[in-house]
Amino acid sequence: MSARDAVAGIERRRGARGTAHASSRRAHRAAANAATIDGSRSVASVGSPQDRPSPATDFTQPSMNQSRHGAASPPDVRSQSQSHEQEAPTQPAIATPSQHPHRMTAPRFSLLRTRDGHRIAYAVAGAADGVPVVALHGGPGSGSQPSTARLFDLARVRVVLIDQRGAGVSRPHGSVRRNDTARLIDDIETVRRHLGIARWGVLGGSWGASLALAYAGRHPEAVTGVVLRGLFLTSAREVSGLFVASRRRAPREWLRLRRAAGCETGTRPAALLSRCQAALQRGANGATQRAVALAWRDYENAVLASARPGRAGGRTTRTSRRRADKLAGKYRVQAFYLRHRCWLGEPRLLTLARRAAAAGVPLVALHGRRDPVCPPANLGRLARSVPSARVEYIANAGHLATDPRLRKPLMRSLATMFVTEARGQ
Predict the structure, then answer these.
(1) Which of 144, 341, 385, 350 has the alpha carbon at shortest distance from 242?
(2) Does the active-site annotation cover 399?
């Protein structure tokens, strides 16, 4: 599908979705009057154990908690005062043009407390009455990057950043207890209802793209459109590629990771992920956890840098013990998810993508031709499974949204999907 056809398709959908966006804006104002959302420090208790699916739950089935017309049902939220140790730390600055067009302000993460022991961090940037879009980070376990908000026109868009369970400033950091994809999808819905948003767009990159498709397939009535960057299909093939095939891209860093994880000379390369997971478990030797986390980070950076010929992966700098402990939490979550193929796998994920498209959710996917982490062929697999999806290969671009060759087309796709549509209402 060409870009022109995609825009034409979006124009035809404007009339059908105009009422939903108007309802969403009214819901935003009501939510703002009912509770402090942007920049608040409140902790809310949401959900209940029986509402949470087990890891074996078939979350490809439509949710039974949604109304037939997709309206947001009242959340089970009880505001509580937050003690000093519960405050979520702020992240680097992001822009909020609706308040200060030429200044950067630090986002303040609020926390939603789940009844199964997690506190989910979220932050909001942009116009209070803007088109709502939720941004889902990668990893798994990486946490939100405030720079993601700069991909949008924040004078017209209201961006919601969510730190997934165990990631970023969500608590407990690095926890894999009661942490799986089905619960992440429920957490996204919890935030949406808490903010009073009837429907929103979804942006996801890498693992965040997988989660975006899974969420849209489970809750298509809550999604206006999906934009994907560097799609990860959660297949065993991709995981093996990262820990086995990619060693050719960064041989020295791969050997250091093997040594840190305690792999002996005869250990099969395919066993590296399981060794890393074992070394990163809570209760394992702290020094070993930090060593594995630092080696994994260096290997990951070297693989990413291989997309830019002639450029090194960056100098290895001294890392504080506190930072190394945080990295250990990040990679603990990532290893846990990858060992379970993120509770998805390629066939299941593509089934969810087809379900979202069949429900009328437009899908746009961009992928760098030089992506060293997620195979560019993933885009073709999506296109064959979902013919209505608009897919675009970006020449000479890598994996990260910070790549200038990928960033500009991504911003253009976000504007087409969300801002252009809003202007027509």
Answers:
(1) 341
(2) yes
Which of the following CATH numbers is that of domain 3-51+73-234+344-423: 3.40.630.40, 3.10.290.10, 3.40.50.1820, 3.40.395.10? Answer: 3.40.50.1820
**In angstroms, rounded to a whole number, what is the distance separating the alpha carbons of residues 104 and 93?**
6
Please, which pLDDT band fits residue 309 given cuts at 50, 70 and 90? low
CA distances from 243 to 1, 201, 246, 262, 303 (A): 34, 33, 6, 15, 11
Instruction: Return the structure tokens found at 44.
Output: 């809310």
- Supply the pTM of this predicted model: 0.79
Q: Check 24, 175, 206, 306 and give the catalytic one.
A: 206
Say whether pLDDT at 334 is over 90.
yes
Catalytic entry in 28, 118, 173, 399? 399
383 φ/ψ angles, rounded to the nearest 5 degrees: -60, -40
197 with 72: CB under 8 angstroms?
yes
Residues 192-203 pLDDT 10s: 999 999 999 999
Summarize pLDDT for 30-68 with one digit per residue, the tens: 443 333 223 333 344 433 333 333 333 344 444 434 333
Catalytic residue among 153, 180, 186, 371: 371
The answer to whether 371 is a known catalytic residue is yes
Q: Spell out the domain ranges in the chain.
A: 3-51+73-234+344-423, 236-342
Q: How many angstroms separate the CA atoms of 337 and 136, rounded?
A: 16
Instruction: Give the tens place of pLDDT for each residue, 104-127.
Output: 355 689 999 999 999 999 999 999
Would residue 206 show up in a list of annotated catalytic residues for this protein? Answer: yes
